[in-house]
Amino acid sequence: MSLSTRWRAARSARRRGTRNGRSDALLTVGVMIGIVAALLPVTRVIAPGAWIWGALALSAATMATGFLLRRTRMSAIGISAVELALTIGVVTVVFLRETALWGIIPVFGSVDQAAGLVVTASEEILYSAAPMVPTPALSFSVVGAAGLFTIAVDHIALTARMPLLAGVALFTVSLIPALAVPSAVNLWSFALLAAAVLLMLRAETRGREPRGGRASGASAVAAGIGALALVATLLITPSLPQPGPRVASGSGTAGIDASLSLGQDLRRPEQIEVLRMRSTAPLPPYLRVATLSEFTGAVWEPDRTWSLPLEGGAAFGDVETGPGIEVADYSTTVEITDLSASWLPVPFPAVGVEGLSGSWNVMPLNRTVVGENGATQGQSYVVETRVPEPTLDQIRAADANPDRVRDTASALPDNLPEIIAQTAREITAGTTNDYDALIAMQSWFRGSDFRYSLDAPVEQGFDGSGADAVAAFLEVKSGYCVHFASAFALMARTLDMPSRIVVGYLPGVNTSTVVDGQNVRSVLSGQLHAWPEVYFDGIGWVAFEPTNSLGTATRFGSATDAAQDDTADPTPTASSTPSATPQPTRSALSENLDTPNASVPLPLQRNLAAFGWGAFAVGMIALLAAPGVVAELRRRRLLASAARGDAVAAWAVVRDTAADLGIRVAGSDTPRMLGDRLVRQHGVDADAMSVLVSAIERESYALAGARTASRPLPGDGGTERGMLAQAAREVRGQVMLAASPARRSIALVAPRSLVLGLFPRS
C-alpha cells in the first residue's frame, strides 16, 4: 500500500472516529434527557425529595463514565462492569456505609441491610397511598433501580446501537406511575421523552450516514415530522376526554382509597353494593380497612408497621385491658359482592378471621388485614372480635396517654394554624377529664353549627385533609367525613391526646333478610367513611364519630344507669356500651410494635425474604441466559436449513456471528465486501468464505432456473448442499476464535443478532 493510500485511509478513519464520537455524545445526551423525563412521573407516586436528585446524579455519572470509557475502546462488558461498580459504590456510601468495609466496600452485612431495605420498601409500597413519603428504604430502592436501569439503557443505546429499543424501555418506565396512580398524562414529560428518543434516533443515523448528502436531508424531514407530531400531541391531547375517577378492575367494581382522598368516591353518582354483613354485636360495627397515624401537615399517611401471615388468630394477638374492664366477644360475617381492593373490611378489634382464600397478612398494631391487589373480590369470611366495654366512670378515669403509643400518633407540624388549637381549648374549657373533652368536641361538630356537604369543600378549594384545609373547614363549618375526622384528630393532639384516623365503611342499611337471627345489612360504595380514634390507657383505641348527620355518636353509660343522654347533643341516645364503632385495645404483640425502639423477632419474615432473594437470583440467571438459549436455537435452525442447501440461512449465520461480536455489518455491505473484511481482519479461511459468498451471490443474482443447480465446489468433493452448513460452522468458529474472551462472552450471553433476527431481511 502506497504512502498516499495509507494517509487517505488514516484520514478517513479519523473522520469516522470523529463522527462516531459525536454520535456517541448525542446518544449519551439523548439517553440522559430520556431518563430525566422517565423519572419525572415517579414524583406522583413518591413525594419529591433528595431521592430524585440522587437518582439523576447517579444516572448522569453512569452515562458520563460509559462515554469516557468508550473513548478508550474498552470492551462492552468492561464498561458495564465499571458502571455497575460505580452504582454499587455510590449506593453503598449513601445508604449502606454503616455496614460496609471502610464505608465503601459492601460486605455480607451490607447485603443483609440492602435486603431489609428492599423488604421494607415493598411493605411501604403495599400499605401506603400516593404520594408516599420518601423514606430511606424507598429512596434506596428507587436510586438503586435508577442506576441499574441506566446501565441497561446505556448498553442498549450505545453498545448495541439500538436506540429505538432503549426508547421503548424509557417509555415503559414512564408509564408505570400512571398505572400505579391513575391520573392525567404529564404532557410536558411525554414531550421531553419523545424529543429525547428522536434525538437518539438522529444521533444513531448520523453515525452511520456519510458526511452531508441526501441522508442529511432525509433526517431533517424526519425531524420535522417528529416535531409536528409533538406539537399535535400537546395541542390535541388536552382536548380529549380525560380518564374518570379511579376504580378497581372489573366493570362496576368499587375500590378503596386509603389516602383520605375520598371526595371523588363519595361524589360518584352511581352507587353499588360492595358487601353484605351481619353481626352478633348489639350495634352493627363499622368496618375498617386502613388506619392513618402520621400527619405531615399536608396529608395523613397510612400506617407502615410489621405484618404477619394470617394463620388463625395468632397473628392478631390478645386484647389486653385494665383491671375491671369487661370484654365482650362478637362474631361478624362479611360477604364481598363488588369490591376489589387489597384491604379487607373487618370490625375492630379483630382477633381472628376464618374462611378467607388466598394469601393474607395482619398488621397487629392496628389489626388490619391486607392481601394482594384486588384480593377482596368474592370473599366470604367470619371475623371474631373482643370488644372492651368500659363504663362511663372507667373511661372518665382513664387518661389519653401519648406515652403508650408511637410518637407519630401525637406529632404535630410546626406550622399548624393557630385556629385548630384555639378552637380545641375553647370547646373543651370547663371539662375535667380527657373523655369529657372529647365528647364536648364530638357534640360541637355534630351540632347545628356544622353542615355535612360533599360540594361546599370543592367550592371553597379545600378538598383535602391537610392543616390548611382543616383551618378553612373550622371557619366555614361545612364539609364531609374527611374534614370532620381530620379536624377532630388534630384538635385532640393539640390537647396532648394521641389520635389517628380510620378509613372504612359505615354499617350500611338493614335488608329484609335474617340469617341465624341476625339482620343482614347492605353496604354501598357511597358509605365509604373516615372517623377518628383516641388512645386510652387500659382500654385501647376508642373511636368517635364527629361527622355531622352520619353514623352514631360514641357514648358510654354508667354501670348503674344505662342510656345516659346529653341533651346538648342532638345525636342518638347512649347505652351501656359504645354506640359507634367497637372500642379497640392493643394486644401484647402490638404493644411491643408500638414502641419506637422495639425489636420483635420475625424469623418467618426473614425466611420469606431469603426465599424471595433466592427466587430473584434464579429468575435473574434465567433471564440472563434466555437470550443466549434463544439465539442458539435460532442458529441451529439456520444450520439445519443450510444443510438442505439454503444459502440465505448459511449467510445469516455469518452475519449474526459478526453482529454478535461487534463487527461492523453495514446495510450497504455486499456479501463479498463483508467476506473480504472477515478474511483480512478476523482470520477466516478464504476457501470456506468463498463457498458461502458464491452461494449467496448466486442465490441473490442468478436466474431462477440456475439457483436450483447443485454444482460441485472445491473441497472434499461434496456438493454445495453438503458444504454450506460445514462452511458456515467453520467461519463462525474462526471468527469467534479470533475475538477476545470478553467479546465471545458478550456474543454468547447477549447476542445482538437476536433482536436483529426478529425483523425480516430484505
Automatic annotation (TrEMBL):
Residues 569-588 have a biased composition (Low complexity). The chain crosses the membrane at residues 21-44, 50-69, 76-96, 137-157, 164-181, 187-203, 215-236, 610-631. Coiled coil: none annotated. The keyword Manganese does not apply. Residues 473-548 form the Transglutaminase-like domain. Residues 560-594 are annotated as: Disordered. InterPro entries: Bact_TGase-like, Papain-like_cys_pep_sf, TgpA_N, Transglutaminase-like. This is DUF3488 and transglutaminase-like domain-containing protein. It comes from Microbacterium schleiferi.
